[in-house]
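Checked the freezer inventory, then went back to the computational side. Two predictions to log before the end of the day. The first one is the construct we discussed on Monday; recording sequence and tokens without edits.
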Amino acid sequence: MLMLIPLFCPIAIWITLLFFFTALFLAVAQGRRQLQKLHRIPCSRCVFCTGDYRLKCAVHPMRAFSEEAIDCRDFEREIQENRKMGFFKKPVFSVSFLVIITWILAVKLRISSVIPVFKTGRLPV
């Protein structure tokens, strides 16, 4: 009987370690599956997402950002141009366009200084 105790302790330790690492592996796998499911929720990329915590979605406020919203029939993808971040954005206006706009504004200022304007801010007809 005393001969089995030195044999039993290492076996019990190995079985305990096996159960521990199996449980750890299963927990990580389940967490990964849950995370993949949550990444399928389309609400953050939808046009109807308000970005406010009080009213998350204009169409389905009770289902927004939950697992029920995974197959939302009212999902419309938001245009990604508004969400682009970075230092190297495309310029919205070209230099020639800005020169033309500046010239037009200068001409309008010269015209408005010649034509009298009433207190209402409207030009006489």
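The second is the one RB wanted added to the comparison set:
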Amino acid sequence: MRPDLQDLVISEDYLTNLVGEKPERVRGFFLEKPKEPGDFLIKLGRGSFLWLKYKAVRRLVKEVDRYNTVIRAVHINDQLEEAGNPGVGLSNRERVLEALGVMKTDLVRALKTERILRENKQFITKNPQLFTTNLTTLTALHLSDQASEYGRVLDQALQVAVGVQEEMRKLQNQR
């Protein structure tokens, strides 16, 4: 993987550091099948607790997974280009990497914010007046910024994915 692309990957270790838990624990309820009938009830209760506790962070972890998938698609495209297929190169690779960099910054910020809010939930619940005004303003700004940025990044990611698909079809047809 090229160094500029490698710097954009959100690794499992970095994600664990941001979330404060192992991502596997956040992603699923049952990491293993229940061995005894009583285990099912214990795992169901534990799974329900974890589902409620990590509801918001689970969505963010899924976004990180999608983000890393786009990076993988760019990497595959780079490999195809390096293998001697000059037509598969991204014409706007720098712009795609720039958009992915912005997306990484937003995801990291969102994960850090979610962790701070989750870890200070009791304080925030006891002192809502301290956060109401600022939170409303921040939410409005964030939603507007997120909508425009997400649309732009999604468009660029789709362009990359379509380009990779087209080149894969071309390579398959050459065989």
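For RB: The chain has a mean pLDDT of 77. Residues 3-174 form one domain. Let me know if you want it refolded.
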